[in-house]
Amino acid sequence: MLSFILRRILIAIPTILLISVFVFSLQKLLPGDPVLAMAGEERDPEVIAFLREKYRLNDPIPVQYAHWVGNAVRGDLGMSLRTNQPVLELIGEKLPVTIQLATMAMIFAMGIGIPAGILSAVRKGTVTDYVANVVALSGLSIPNFWLGIMLILLVSVKWQLLPASGYVPFADDPWRSVQVMLMPAFVLGTALAATLMRHTRSAMLTVLTSDYVRTARAKGLSERRVILKHAFRNALTPIVTLSALLFGELIAGAVLTEQIFTIPGFGKLVVDAVFNRDYAVVQGIVLVTAVGFIVMNLLADVAYVLLNPRLRSQT
Amino acid sequence: MVETLVEPDAAAPVLDVRDLSLRFRGFDRDLLSGLRYSVRSGETLCIVGESGCGKSVASLALMGLLPPTAVEIGAADVRFCGEPLDLGDQARLRSLRGASMAMIFQEPMTSLNPAFRIGDQIAEAVMAHSGATPAEARERAVAMLRKVGIPAPEERLNEYPHQLSGGMRQRVMIAMALVNDPALLIADEPTTALDVTIQAQILDLIRDLQAETGMATIMITHDLGVVAEIATDVAVMYAGTIVEAGPVERIFNDPQHPYTIGLMSSVPRLSGPRQRLTTVPGTVPTPQTMPDGCRFSTRCPFARPVCATDPPEREFGAGHRALCHFAPLETMLERSA
């Protein structure tokens, strides 16, 4: 198992390098000069030359790349061109906010999507199944921003149950922090809950007709045990794999939700950095996101193997 | 110990199906019509017939393993160990399943849950029907695995199904089915998916266990070799009806229904000149194409207009019966001459 994980990590290294090249070149190909943006209205040639020197923008591009990668490996992603804060520090500040949001959205999505999927598979063709599918389809089709705005209008403005925006660090006041993030997590999680519900349903439908489920029934087990143990355990593999992969997407997808609820998270950092042509920050963000995706992929693979006795004994 | 176990009444058959009809919901013809068969303790009833004739469906219905949403049970006069058995009573059927009536299936490769250790799967069957602790159940599982001829059962217990061969998996299935010492074992083509040499081993195993426990066995098969090997009685099924039934030697030596005769002559013989195998032409009719009257009439070489009416059941003594207008055979041969 350990060798399997090590092997997977080794495979990930060239992928990350490739992404770093891509990120770096994209940056260079984009129109707009950050130095001009920084130098202000006057565009004093001396200032520009100084800035170019400072940020090593006069070096040949491969040298710039090597320099950047070399620093990145040591944890130095450079300084924000705008705020002069280290990029890693910026990301370190914002990422936990988004991870909390994504985790809450995930818990919500799994808590709703998986039971609903099981129920609709077990009661296939009944009103329950029909209702679950309609709700799931609505969950997929309603745009985040609309749902978010409607919730703010209803829950915050009209009923005044939850705050409409803001953020409280979890460490400061866990209860308040969760409360503030309840609505954003719901908004971010709806589409995911629907996706999970559909996948759970189809995985369960496949498994429920399998021979071993019939065997479990033939043993005289309760229907509950047949479904939740024998069937669900086998349907779980694709669900867990999918969840791990979708978690990465959640973080990326949080951009919009964070804008609606004005949460100072990763998404807001992305948007600000792009609008300000803050190259170092954008590079850092894309790199961290890519690594995050690769880690989630790795976790998905590991989970897949762990859940599958056949693969487990082979690795 | 097992509270749901029904005390076998020595005089009564273990399973006595007096009348069983069922249909798929939405169809207007019965899939199974008026089935009648019984099996006593220590005896083996072989249900034979082509694929799609309803052999398995009947057994699944008796075990309560057909989804109630898909089938509609019409007449059902069934007695189990002398007591009436209501096929609509899911709770009662569940308490009997795996305890006093057990079933093994055709596909050992897919019948075990790939995600759990075989020991746990067997122990689970013990615990489902008794207050056994996990340790006791595990012990029972080891004893049962040893009984079905699995070497080093203490270690095998911790293996997953994919680590076992097909023959071994079928042994595990048998161990799981018999761990609660059932009065009735239904074996649905247990050897079809296995190698010929393994087939013989599995049949021997079932026979030995039967001799030891005195359980009644229903063996569903289309293999007449298997029938000759282990049956005490035979029921020949065709398109959801039992067309002929009786003691095994009567069925083999003196078949009376044209379908049984056709089945017998489609078995290749080793002795004598090699010749083209006889087949029964056509296929089993589906519920939509089912003819009126005798269900075999569309393929029967002796069919006459009268066959469009329901055939009478004729008895030939010793429990031998056939469902045909022209039985016994002599009548048929005279008419066709």
From TrEMBL, chain A:
SUPFAM superfamilies: MetI-like. Keywords: Cell membrane, Membrane, Transmembrane, Transmembrane helix, Transport. The keyword ATP-binding does not apply. InterPro entries: BPD_transp_1_N (IPR045621), MetI-like (IPR000515), MetI-like_sf (IPR035906). The keyword Membrane applies. Belongs to the binding-protein-dependent transport system permease family. Its main location: membrane. It is a multi-pass membrane protein. The chain crosses the membrane at residues 9-26, 99-122, 134-157, 177-196, 235-261, 281-307. The lineage of its organism: Bacteria, Pseudomonadati, Pseudomonadota, Alphaproteobacteria, Rhodobacterales. GO terms for molecular function: dipeptide transmembrane transporter activity. GO terms for cellular component: plasma membrane. Residues 95-300 form the ABC transmembrane type-1 domain. It is found in: Cell membrane. This is Dipeptide transport system permease protein DppB.
From TrEMBL, chain B:
CDD domains: ABC_NikE_OppD_transporters (cd03257). It is found in: Cell inner membrane. Residues 17-264 form the ABC transporter domain. Gene3D superfamilies: P-loop containing nucleotide triphosphate hydrolases. It comes from the Bacteria. Pfam families: ABC_tran, oligo_HPY. One of its GO terms (molecular function) is ATP hydrolysis activity. InterPro entries: AAA+_ATPase (IPR003593), ABC_Ni/Peptide_Import (IPR050388), ABC_transporter-like_ATP-bd (IPR003439), ABC_transporter-like_CS (IPR017871), Oligopep_ABC_C (IPR013563), P-loop_NTPase (IPR027417). GO terms for cellular component: plasma membrane. SMART domains: AAA (SM00382). Keywords: ATP-binding, Cell membrane, Membrane, Nucleotide-binding, Transport. It is a peripheral membrane protein. One of its GO terms (biological process) is transmembrane transport. The keyword Cell membrane applies. Belongs to the ABC transporter superfamily. This is Stage 0 sporulation protein KD. It comes from Jannaschia rubra. The gene is oppD_2.
